Amino acid sequence: QQPVQSPQAVILREGEDAVINCSSSKALYSVHWYRQKHGEAPVFLMILLKGGEQKGHEKISASFNEKKQQSSLYLTASQLSYSGTYFCGTYGGATNKLIFGTGTLLAVQP
Amino acid sequence: DGGITQSPKYLFRKEGQNVTLSCEQNLNHDAMYWYRQDPGQGLRLIYYSQIVNDFQKGDIAEGYSVSREKKESFPLTVTSAQKNPTAFYLCASRTNIANTGELFFGEGSRLTVL
What we know:
The structure holds 2 protein chains of 2 kinds. Chain A is mostly beta strands. Helices cover about 0% and strands about 55% of the residues of chain A. Chain A contains no helices and 11 strands. In chain A, the strands form 2 sheets. In chain A, strands 2, 4, 5, 6, 9, 10 and 11 form a 7-stranded mixed β-sheet that branches. A 4-stranded antiparallel β-sheet of chain A has the order 1-3-8-7, with no helix packed on it. Chain A is globular and about 40 Å long. Chain A starts with a strand and ends with a strand. The mean pLDDT of chain A is about 85. In chain B, strands 2, 4, 5, 6, 9, 10 and 11 form a 7-stranded mixed β-sheet that branches. In chain B, strands 1-3-8-7 form a 4-stranded antiparallel β-sheet, with no helix packed on it. Chain B has no helices and 11 strands. In chain B, a hairpin with a 5-residue loop joins β4 and β5 (about 45-50). At the A-B interface, β4, β5, β9 and β10 of A face β4, β5 and β10 of B.
């Protein structure tokens, strides 16, 4: 089952904050977050592991609630470059099958 | 530079024809993936491979076939059995460390069936 993301779309002004949620019906072992610009390939943002370990490359934070099978991505002081579609990806078990969520379209306006 | 190369970038085909999309990586990654993306939608997993000569079906494998004869190559064939093949296809790879490796994506192949 595909993870469900909310909201489906959000429009922000520069400097505003946003939260994107990812919810799964299956037990999660880890959660990935990616951002995709229009017409381009997705780019890795962050991975969250069971036990609270995080690995990321940008100034974006996230949380992972294993019990609730949910993850949230926090975008603070948004910039125009944050615009794009955000996807969470989840591993439901000890396999390499990475399933992506439904996506959240984020538009940051000047 | 290391990375993933997909070709062709754009492809047109007539109904009833098979077409093969190429995916090559020089990252020495064990795991490789094929995803399909339709306009305004997420990425759906077609096939994935964890090791040479082995691959598994994803959520939408019907009408597609793959092979993994070499570690660096994972071609996808879209067969005539695929009822609605027009889409953006993305290949990705990662190190085969369960649940912790990030995915590296190619630039994608856009297939249009005329």
